[in-house]
Design a protein that fits this description.
single chain; alpha/beta; FAD/NAD(P)-binding domain; 17 strands; 35% helix; 25% strand; globular
């Protein structure tokens, strides 16, 4: 049976859900008021809720399914350096000063991630180190240029280039032509991290609700009214919209710039040896539809590969992802796949996040395009700062200006499918 991409809670066959302590939060009821309301219980919303609660602000978060059950609890758990758009491109688009601020912001986001984990003792299987491997020799030039630029311009000294033989030893496969190692990157258990953030925010005083989908909102005088269904309503002075890939239909301006796509992951049974990723680094390759993988704390291979752009998941997710796995690790042909699941993330046309004030008291951050583990918790914090009057970072991010998808509501999905399918085809050429 074809599965739906709609989020109703943690997926049944997720290794993350099977290995995390799931915390239940109440559903919203009645009519309430709050200073600041947050729509979305993923990294962005939780980052904002935590920051606001720690500052003594009355804050209420509404999640339509379960806290952390969207992309924040389903992704590959990879920690990457930088913004989603490379710094050389940002220099050409925005100038050297703004590009440097955005680089520093991304480094601050990574430091913020590690600080949250350490300061609040969030057990999320954090490991350091990530290898970006080249599936075609031509991608070596891009990584050489990137490594030279961030080292010479920003003083980032955690990158080292790897030849084909070194990558083969670290990955346990000889299909790649070399790679770039980032000692400042890494990986974690994303659902454990999200739930750790939620428990921390709740302990700080944030009101968190799940199974409380916001169907619409409107301005009422100086306030916003959020309609949750069954006559329930929340009134707030300021609103933060943080639903990422699960908020279509809520706001027309967001829908024009942010589009959901689906990505899929499997985990194997525990591997019999340590020849694959012997140092527990994460790995990702240079394909447009990227393959990414890592070892889990219980010695499984967690592998993500393959996308679709429809409202439905494939009928057989295991087979859909496994065919990509075996192209890299044919030696795992007899290894059992124990879990397979999908998740919906949000992308923008330029891959730059869509962050801005929709009105003076309503802000949005979405469309992380695969970079959300690092950026989303910090961008939630920045939304909180803007809601309290400090708009500097949100104004900087709004300069990224991802363009609207062409075609309007009816034509943008077919156009998206055609465009992304073309780039996926190029991966095979």
């Amino acid at each position: 049976m074809t599965q739906t991409a709609k989020n109703t809670g943690h997926p049944d066959n997720s290794w993350y859900a099977d290995t995390a302590l799931i915390t239940a939060f109440p559903a919203f009821g009645g009519t309430q008021t709050t200073d600041i309301a947050i729509i979305g219980g993923g990294y962005t919303g939780l980052g904002a809720a935590l920051e606001l609660a720690q500052r003594g602000v009355s804050v209420t978060l509404l999640e339509g399914a379960q806290i952390g059950s969207g992309a924040s609890g389903r992704n590959g758990g990879q920690i990457h350096t930088g913004q989603r758009v490379d710094p050389q491109t940002l220099v050409s688009q925005l100038g050297s000063d703004a590009a440097r601020e955005l680089w520093d912001m991304a480094e601050a986001a990574k430091a913020h991630l590690f600080d949250l984990i350490n300061r609040h003792d969030i057990d999320c299987d954090l490991r350091h180190g990530l290898i970006h491997s080249w599936h075609k020799p031509r991608f070596a030039d891009d990584d050489h240029a990137y490594a030279d630029f961030v080292s010479q311009t920003y003083g980032y000294d955690k990158l080292s280039l790897m030849n084909r033989e070194a990558v083969a030893v670290e990955l346990g496969t000889d299909v790649y032509h070399g790679g770039l190692f980032d000692a400042g990157a890494g990986h974690l258990h994303p659902l454990k991290f999200a739930l750790g953030m939620a428990r921390t925010a709740q302990a700080a005083g944030a009101a968190l609700y799940e199974h409380s989908r916001v169907h619409s909102y409107h301005r009422s005088g100086d306030d916003y009214d959020l309609h949750i269904g069954d006559g329930h309503r929340l009134r707030c002075r300021k609103l933060l919209i943080c639903g990422n890939g699960y908020m279509q239909g809520l706001d027309r301006e967001i829908d024009r710039h942010v589009v959901p796509i689906n990505n899929f992951i499997l985990t194997t049974e525990p591997l019999p040896d340590r020849t694959i990723l012997p140092h527990d680094y994460a790995a990702a390759d240079s394909r447009f539809v990227v393959n990414y993988w890592r070892r889990t704390a219980d010695n499984r291979l967690l592998f993500g590969g393959g996308e679709n752009y429809t409202p439905w998941f494939p009928k057989d997710i295991k087979a859909f992802v496994r065919r990509n796995l075996l192209k890299i690790y044919p030696q795992l042909d007899t290894v059992k796949v124990t879990h397979a699941w999908g998740g919906t993330l949000a992308i923008t046309l330029s891959r730059a996040p869509f962050v801005r004030a929709l009105s003076p008291d309503c802000l949005v951050s979405a469309g992380y395009s695969g970079q959300g583990v690092v950026l989303a918790p910090y961008f939630g914090k920045l939304l909180a700062h803007a809601a309290l009057g400090d708009h500097h970072d949100i104004k900087l991010l709004s300069q990224l200006r991802p363009p609207a998808f062409p075609g309007g509501p009816l034509l943008r999905t077919p156009a998206l499918i055609a465009g992304l399918s073309w780039y996926a085809l190029r991966d095979r050429l």
